[in-house]
């Protein structure tokens, strides 16, 4: 038992981050969400969605992760939102339709190699918000804008992002 505790502690020591990384993550995520928040008053286009907060975790704290690459962000959100809207449109908001839409959305991301964990929430957002097909426009616009924010922010900070586009 003691050896396991020591091993966990040693692994935790290797995983520590420095203050600059934390500050960079804070600034990048805050600016990206600010930009999404300003979109509605400026354009009337509400692209501020809860799953985008979680996307910022990957985009700014773990930008090297395959889950944070543009393909995964944009298509992961689009695929899951599409499935959520389709289920809502055809089956309504029921416990079973919510459960199946989330499960099928996750499976679809796996099948298309576009896994992006925050996107798994999109079918729930669709169901709770009674979203229409227009929701897909908001998801695409928000996803693309987040990727642009990530590319610009990481470029300014001298980091290479994305690792790949497709």
3D architecture notes:
There is one protein chain. The protein is mostly helical. It is 72% helix and 0% strand. It has one domain. The protein has helices at residues 2-14, 19-43, 50-61, 70-91, 95-111, 122-129, 135-156.
Please count the helical segments. 7
Helical proportion, percent range: over 70%
- Termini separation: 45 Å
How would you classify the helix and strand content by structural class?
A: mainly alpha
Coarse shape: globular
Number of structural domains? 1
The portion of residues forming beta strands comes to: under 5%
Secondary structure: elements and pairs:
Elements: H1 2-14, H2 19-43, H3 50-61, H4 70-91, H5 95-111, H6 122-129, H7 135-156
Helix pairs in contact: 2-3, 2-7, 3-7, 4-5, 4-6, 4-7, 5-6
What is this entry, summarized?
With 166 residues, the chain is mainly alpha-helical.
List keywords for this structure.
166 residues, mainly alpha, 72% helix, 0% strand
């Amino acid at each position: 038992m003691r050896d396991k505790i020591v091993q966990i502690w040693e692994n935790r020591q290797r995983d520590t981050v420095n203050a600059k990384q934390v500050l960079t993550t804070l600034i990048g995520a805050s600016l990206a969400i600010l930009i999404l928040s300003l979109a509605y008053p400026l354009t009337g286009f509400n692209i501020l969605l809860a799953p985008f907060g979680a996307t910022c975790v990957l985009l700014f704290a773990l930008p090297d992760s395959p889950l944070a690459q543009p393909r995964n962000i944009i298509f992961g959100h689009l695929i899951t939102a599409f499935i959520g809207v389709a289920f809502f449109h055809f089956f309504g908001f029921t416990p079973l339709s919510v459960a199946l839409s989330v499960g099928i959305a996750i499976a679809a991301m796996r099948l298309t190699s576009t896994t992006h964990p925050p996107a798994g929430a999109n079918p729930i957002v669709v169901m709770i918000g009674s979203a229409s097909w227009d929701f897909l426009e908001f998801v695409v616009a928000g996803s693309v804008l987040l990727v642009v924010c990530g590319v610009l922010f990481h470029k300014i900070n001298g980091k290479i992002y994305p690792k790949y586009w497709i």
